[in-house]
Amino acid sequence: MRILGIVPARGGSKGIPRKNLADVCGRPLVAWSIESGKQLLANGVLVRCIVSTDDEEIAAVARAHGADVPFLRPAEAATDTAKALAYVLHALDTLEPADGPYDAVMILQPTSPRRDPAAIAEAVVRLAASDADSLISCYQEDYINELVMYEDEGDGRIRPRHPNHNKGVRRQEHGPTMVRNGAVYVTRVPYLRATGQLVCDHPVLLRMEKIDSIDVDTPDDLELLRAVLCR
Fold first, then answer.
1. Sheet containing 48-52: order of strands
2. So what's the pLDDT on residue 120?
3. Residue 59 within any structural domain of the chain
């Protein structure tokens, strides 16, 4: 499979301003996923890996860490409401005329930087041999499920998501749940162009450990990531 890797790094993050440039153990956050892309290029999983950003400073920092930054993403593909499909299709439409067609796209989000290139390579082999249209990374959660989930009603009370929330069901009875962690997405190009979706109904699983599944959305997440990576 000819797979294009994309590290998406827009400049307008709000939860943590300039999040992709936040220092994590002496390197900007985006540099960790740039390094993942380099390793996946070296082991032949990817044929090209780029950083897609709308921000000149992020582009300069990415290039300083050895990234391929062939363009600046258009503003409409970098808003708070823009879906990932927008920057993926922009990258494909921009690069394929010169590079030739890609079979699949791999997204390496900077906010989920802990990855095992060998495990990704093995999962991509399984995707290529299957009839699935996508692959996602997940970790196993043995406790979190709808039985322990509630919605905040905004008046100091909460509403259960499941009618059996108070029936005393033991953890062992409801079984484990696989939780998407955002570290790796791989999608076949014909599928994403035809459906406008990055994840098919029955994707291939890349199993990851929970400790490797930190997804940085808040300052607390960033501190947790630093604690794990810098220890």
1. 48-52, 3-8, 104-107, 177-188, 134-141, 204-208
2. 98
3. yes
Q: What is the CATH number of the domain that holds 33?
A: 3.90.550.10
Q: What pTM was computed for the model? A: 0.92
39's tokens = 């390793």
Tell me which of 18 and 170 has the higher pLDDT: 18
Q: Cα 143–84–106 angle (5° rounding)?
A: 80
Note down the domain range covering 66.
3-139+179-229
Residue 41 belongs to some domain of the structure = yes
Structurally, the chain folds into a number of domains equal to 1
Beta bridge mates, 179: 139
Asked if residue 172 has pLDDT above 70, the reply is no
Share of the chain above pLDDT 90, in %: 81
Residue 150 lies in a domain: no
- Torsion angle defined by CA atoms of residues 137, 1, 66 and 220, in that order, rounded to the nearest 10 degrees: -10
